[in-house]
Amino acid sequence: MPLLLGLYVLVRQSRILSTIVLIVGSAIFYAWKTIWWLVPLVIVATVDYFVGMKMANLTDDRIRKRWLILSLVINLAMLSAFKYLGWFTGTLNDLLAVFGIAATVPVITTTLPPGISFYTFETMSYTIDVYRRHFRAEPSYLIYLNFVLFFPHLVAGPILRPGDLIGQLKVVRPLPTPDELRLALSQIFWGLFKKIVFADNLGDVVSYAVRATTTPPYESGGVGLLYAVGFTLQIYCDFSAYSDIARGSALLFGIKLPRNFLTPIFSRSPQEFWRRWHITLSTWIRDYVYIPLGGRAGSYLRQSVTILLTMGLAGLWHGAGFMFICWGFFHGVLILIYRLKTVHLLIERSGAGLPALASWGVFFVINTFGWLMFRAGSGHEHEFRTMVDSFGAFPGALLSHTFLEGLRQLGLLGIPMLLADWTAYRRDTEVPEVLASLSTVRLSTALVSMWFAGMIFAKRSGYDFIYFAF
């Protein structure tokens, strides 16, 4: 990135040269492991560019709709071929075996190109918005390709709409102001710190719980709690860290990416959670799936079916597996329950002390169980039942050295992270914005402290970003 940033600064006054530099740099970034990953990306991007141009030159909405359907079919076919075909053929074989049918379907497996779920949603939003006449088709293929390829958001979001980025790419952008530079550095440093210190070490807590149930003396009592809470905090730190780094990196190039997280760990209801967690996916699902399916229109039964179907599809987007679908339906049911009974308000009006804290605690526990299903869908199905079974052994775990040691590790990591996020939550913002608001001396001290803390406490063999799998 320093090399790319230096080249960009040298040529930024030329819109064409700066665009080419960003496209080439982003392509190298994405194809670093294998150039073949660029093939499906360029195919869907090129198809959607030409579909957008075709729809822009047509006035007959019936013909325009046919072009839109062609775009959606190609995008979804490409996504399904890489992401779901192996799961579908394997499930079909299992189903045939249940009915005693000896025939087998060849199981087709492919390597999942990084970020394919993200960039297909982005290119589909482009053609849908052009079809709806919410956005004018971009005539420059280079600008459009830069929108798809721009490296900070390419692999794990935020998921961008054409209106979020294309307009910024079409102009000569000034260098970041001092305030923007402070924010960019705060986002990058905090994202790196959150990933290599919090997320990766919390991953060790999760692994510690797994080892306790699979190796002698098999002290499983209560470790499911460590596993569940540890993974809840890990996936939040891991995914939001990438978004922080992406937003900070983009800002160095004069690009402002939309917020993707807003302290979701303190949500008190599923509705609030989805307004704070993976915000760009939540709004994408709302605008392109939930509302077209009917949204809040119709009877309560129809609304309920729409919510369940929408959340089931949101779960399926995350990965090929029934546990992902179950996780989506789980959140759909939660939304229906909270809409019907407004659970968090009932808790807060009950008169019991600390009502807001109580409603947060109730939803945190429920949401944590949901994350168990999510992790099970990520290739850890064998751990799910073991960890759930260990919940029942919790009282006896208070005397377990295994549980107490894991709890100590979880506390050392979780408490500082929660306190930092609580500070941002109270201000209705994120930690990097809090850091950027500090004086220059305090900000410099914080950044240097994070740098050295990262060198000291970072894992020497970290984990991949969890959402790279999607």
Write up what this structure looks like.
The relative contact order is 0.11. The chain is built from 22 helices and no strands. Helices cover 72% and strands 0% of the residues. Helix 11 crosses helix 17 (355-377). With 470 residues, it is mostly helical. The two termini are 24 Å apart. It has helices spanning 2-11, 15-30, 38-56, 61-83, 85-98, 116-131, 141-149, 151-154, 162-169, 178-214, 223-252, 270-276, 279-290, 300-318, 322-341, 343-348, 355-377, 381-391, 394-397, 401-426, 431-436, 440-457. The mean pLDDT is 88.
| Number of discrete helical segments | 22
Q: Specify the structural class.
A: mainly alpha
The helix/strand order is HHHHHHHHHHHHHHHHHHHHHH
Overall average pLDDT: 88
C-alpha Rg (nearest Å): 24 Å
Tell me, what's the shape?
A: globular
The proportion of strand residues reads: under 5%
Total E-strand runs: 0
- What percent of the residues sit in helical stretches (DSSP H or I)? over 70%
Unreliable stretches: none
Largest sheet: none
What is the rounded distance between the termini? 24 Å
